[in-house]
Amino acid sequence: MLIAVVGVNHRTAPVEVREKLSFTGPTMKGALKRLNSYPVIESCVILSTCNRTEIYAASLEMDEGLNAIWDFLSRWSGVDISEIKNYTYCHTLYDTIRHIFRVASGLDSMLLGETQILGQVKTAYQLAAEYGSTNRVMNTLFQLALTVGKRVRNETGIDQNAVSISYAAVELARQHLGNLAGRSVLIIGAGKMSELTAKHLVDNGVSGVIVSNRSFDRAEVLAAQFGGRAVKFNELYKHMETADIVISCTAAARCVVRYEEMERVMNLRRGKKIFMIDIAMPRDIETEVGNLEGISLYDIDDLKNVVDQNLAERKRAANKAEKIIEEELEEFMKWHGTQFVVPTISALKKWGDGIKQKELHRALNRLGELSEHDRKVVCSLANSIVNQILHTPVAQLKKYALTVEGHLYTEILQNLFDLEVPGQKPKKIFVPENEEEPIA
């Protein structure tokens, strides 16, 4: 059983190409059914996210299997095969296994070490299994990929350091305030960055969300997303008197939070600390505000420094992750290689046993009456000869099964002995009419 993957991601194709090759939840069942309808495809899984689409397939014929995948993608998307090949990448055999391990571990993502991809791999596999498009090899591959992804995160902590501006803000807030559960946040501005930061804060336990924006309607829309409330822009400082966290990201040309007003706010807070993050450019909060006692103020450059440091940590964790992947790959190679050659070894032993039984029957008939002892000696001799003849090819095949060329040695053995192996068909050897020796 040969495994391959054909895919497209954020590095190989622009979004207008990726969206043509994407699969949504409602279409997944039909897509898997159509891909499985190709006779050469034994099993398959389709992984489709906003940044990648990958077709994993197991086939008895590698070239035919890859052609089937490209044909499927072309027919499904309406994009010409030649164009698809220009944007897609292809991995076969053990490179496929290494690739899915890296994907599940977050090493192949736009954001190094992201956690979301592990759940997406799990969902893709579960859907394929539910729709009956997987077999033993594909089941083992994806179950192990999920295990590898979890092991990488547990042993390296690759997903523990924030590498986005919005999440870095949350990490800093947690460092200064401890547990964020039950904390309140005042968001100044209703843009995308404010929304992302608010989402991360809420996901980490912040419960009270207040949004203030010059456009009150936009403030109401953002507040509604988090079960919060919108307040008038001229009431800004009033709500700072009770907020634990302030996130400011407006498009204002001048500062909207001033030193004199914040000095008054801090007097009313009576020593209660406040954490402030200014993500705007130009800045929303006067730099002198950070000098006030009880205020921790960070701007966009501070957050970028945190991101850079954390990204360096993730890169170090990625090096550890690659070693884990190679360990797991070696184990899977052993299992997969053994699975592939076992039917061939069984067929070879059956072939040898067939010859032994045939020749034993003929020899015993010619020898006539023999004592029980003599019959046992003859049978033992026949068993010993066949076992010794088959021992070396069987042992060598098991050894070669652990290499990337294992399937080639298996096919050669099947051809040499003309073996019939259930579920496998060896490649035919072309023999020209004017040649005495076969040419592969």
From TrEMBL:
<feature type="domain" description="Tetrapyrrole biosynthesis glutamyl-tRNA reductase dimerisation">
    <location>
        <begin position="320"/>
        <end position="419"/>
    </location>
</feature>
<dbReference type="InterPro" id="IPR000343">
    <property type="entry name" value="4pyrrol_synth_GluRdtase"/>
</dbReference>
<keyword id="KW-0521">NADP</keyword>
<feature type="active site" description="Nucleophile">
    <location>
        <position position="50"/>
    </location>
</feature>
<feature type="binding site">
    <location>
        <begin position="189"/>
        <end position="194"/>
    </location>
    <ligand>
        <name>NADP(+)</name>
    </ligand>
</feature>
<feature type="domain" description="Glutamyl-tRNA reductase N-terminal">
    <location>
        <begin position="6"/>
        <end position="156"/>
    </location>
</feature>
<feature type="binding site">
    <location>
        <position position="120"/>
    </location>
    <ligand>
        <name>substrate</name>
    </ligand>
</feature>
<dbReference type="GO" id="GO:0008883">
    <property type="term" value="F:glutamyl-tRNA reductase activity"/>
</dbReference>
<feature type="binding site">
    <location>
        <begin position="114"/>
        <end position="116"/>
    </location>
    <ligand>
        <name>substrate</name>
    </ligand>
</feature>
<keyword id="KW-0560">Oxidoreductase</keyword>
<comment type="subunit">
    <text>Homodimer.</text>
</comment>
<feature type="binding site">
    <location>
        <begin position="49"/>
        <end position="52"/>
    </location>
    <ligand>
        <name>substrate</name>
    </ligand>
</feature>
<dbReference type="Pfam" id="PF00745">
    <property type="entry name" value="GlutR_dimer"/>
</dbReference>
<keyword id="KW-0627">Porphyrin biosynthesis</keyword>
<dbReference type="InterPro" id="IPR018214">
    <property type="entry name" value="GluRdtase_CS"/>
</dbReference>
<comment type="similarity">
    <text>Belongs to the glutamyl-tRNA reductase family.</text>
</comment>
<dbReference type="GO" id="GO:0050661">
    <property type="term" value="F:NADP binding"/>
</dbReference>
<protein>
    <recommendedName>
        <fullName>Glutamyl-tRNA reductase</fullName>
        <ecNumber>1.2.1.70</ecNumber>
    </recommendedName>
</protein>
<keyword id="KW-0175">Coiled coil</keyword>
<dbReference type="Pfam" id="PF05201">
    <property type="entry name" value="GlutR_N"/>
</dbReference>
<feature type="domain" description="Quinate/shikimate 5-dehydrogenase/glutamyl-tRNA reductase">
    <location>
        <begin position="171"/>
        <end position="306"/>
    </location>
</feature>
<feature type="binding site">
    <location>
        <position position="109"/>
    </location>
    <ligand>
        <name>substrate</name>
    </ligand>
</feature>
<dbReference type="InterPro" id="IPR006151">
    <property type="entry name" value="Shikm_DH/Glu-tRNA_Rdtase"/>
</dbReference>
<feature type="site" description="Important for activity">
    <location>
        <position position="99"/>
    </location>
</feature>
<dbReference type="InterPro" id="IPR036291">
    <property type="entry name" value="NAD(P)-bd_dom_sf"/>
</dbReference>
<dbReference type="InterPro" id="IPR036453">
    <property type="entry name" value="GluRdtase_dimer_dom_sf"/>
</dbReference>
<dbReference type="InterPro" id="IPR036343">
    <property type="entry name" value="GluRdtase_N_sf"/>
</dbReference>
<dbReference type="GO" id="GO:0019353">
    <property type="term" value="P:protoporphyrinogen IX biosynthetic process from glutamate"/>
</dbReference>
<dbReference type="InterPro" id="IPR015895">
    <property type="entry name" value="4pyrrol_synth_GluRdtase_N"/>
</dbReference>
<comment type="function">
    <text>Catalyzes the NADPH-dependent reduction of glutamyl-tRNA(Glu) to glutamate 1-semialdehyde (GSA).</text>
</comment>
<dbReference type="Pfam" id="PF01488">
    <property type="entry name" value="Shikimate_DH"/>
</dbReference>
<feature type="coiled-coil region">
    <location>
        <begin position="300"/>
        <end position="331"/>
    </location>
</feature>
<dbReference type="InterPro" id="IPR015896">
    <property type="entry name" value="4pyrrol_synth_GluRdtase_dimer"/>
</dbReference>
<comment type="pathway">
    <text>Porphyrin-containing compound metabolism; protoporphyrin-IX biosynthesis; 5-aminolevulinate from L-glutamyl-tRNA(Glu): step 1/2.</text>
</comment>
